[in-house]
Amino acid sequence: MKKVITYGTYDLLHFGHIRLLERAKALGDYLIVGVTSDGFDRVRGKINVQQTLMERIEAVKATGIADQIVIEEYEGQKIDDIKRYNVDIFTVGSDWIGKFDYLNEYCKVVYLDRTQGISSSELRADKRKERIGLVGGSLNAMAMLEKFEKESHYVNGVEISGICTYNKDIAINLKNLPCVTEQYEELLSVSDALYIISQPENHYEHIKKALEHGKHVLCESPITTEVSQLQELWDLAERNHCILMDGVKTAYSIAYNRMLVLAKSGRIGEIVSVDATCTSLLDFAKFDITKCWNSISAWGPTAMLPIFQLLGTKYDSCSIVSKMHSESDNFDLFTKIAFEYPTAVASLKVAQGVKSEGELVISGTKGYIYIPAPWWKTDYFELRYENPAENKRYFYQLEGEGIRNEIVSFVKAIQGIEFSYIGKDVSKEIVHLTERFKNNRHRL
Ligand code: CTP
User: Fold this and answer.
1) ∠9-10-14 over CA atoms, to 5°?
2) Ligand 1 pocket: which of 19, 25, 114 to mutate (most atoms within 8 A of CB)
């Protein structure tokens, strides 16, 4: 019996796939189809897949062409499968010509002509696009708005409809967008959804207006500066069937998510301490601090994320100490927060006027997880034990600092496909601490 194997994502199964499978089958007597897992697709940069692994497997099964379906989960698996299943022929579409010649060592490699004029990417792109409008003007926002616009090009199903900003430099840098305006209503009229990175104290008004117009919102964390406002906005979002999503790009990066799962699975024993530091030095000669996010707003949500996602939000006590800018009662150059939980402790340091090592350390009763600086955009972390021989290193592809995945999550939430964003308890606690910072902190 001649065995043939082929691989693919098979998202939104189309006639190009079916023709490929038919011709693959005709090369032998028995066809094995490898369907890529969601995780493997993400690692290799294919982040827009619309259907779940189960849906894609079901679709391939329904063609009745495959004799066996396997799941492709890791780099190099093709060699293992060819040996394991005694495969005679490996085949794939001609878009891959040359890429799999190395498999000739194990079996015959055949490239079949790709069917012209159809692909999953095109089908995904043909779906109605969510038009996302950008909102923000501060100097901190500038780089983020530009990255967001750039990253949106990698995501099927979205287009940036325009920007509302008072900042002339941002308007110039993004002048090619269809709508560049200072009038919020104008941007709302051409958008289905908004990415908001205005000053935190303006979030409430911006979000409220957007939700009242039935627009979905992804807002850079903290969503508001007061918990009561946040609850009001969530209620409004629910009434108007809108998504209101908290934006912390790190929450959507693969390495960070894998680290969370490992930490929760007991690999370092019971977690006893989480310590997160995020700092960046601002050039205060250039930055007008009245138009800048203070340190607790700019970095606090990111640093709070692993603490609340690992230890929860029900701490017994917390103390906040800040070194303030000499000319402001709101701008903290440096803030340290210490938490006490019933069975653990945590601390965070955030700063824009003090520099420190930007690492994340999660300490447990059996070992610790170490994420080196800058941990908030890492592609790597380590599990470390008393016996260094047991240490393990983990690497994951990081595309676009997590922003690309964040946009994908936002769009999937809007389309009702998947709701994988930051939990409401975490968002609420971030806002609660932002509020507490204003009213209850010690000064250095
Ligand atoms: N294929 C084909 N003709 C097409 C599209 C895909 O022969 N028009 C083949 C690919 O070469 C591959 C298999 O079908 O052997 C599965 O491809 P997959 O990557 O799942 O499909 P694409 O439509 O190419 O997906 P994407 O646009 O996401 O890359």
Assistant:
1) 150
2) 114
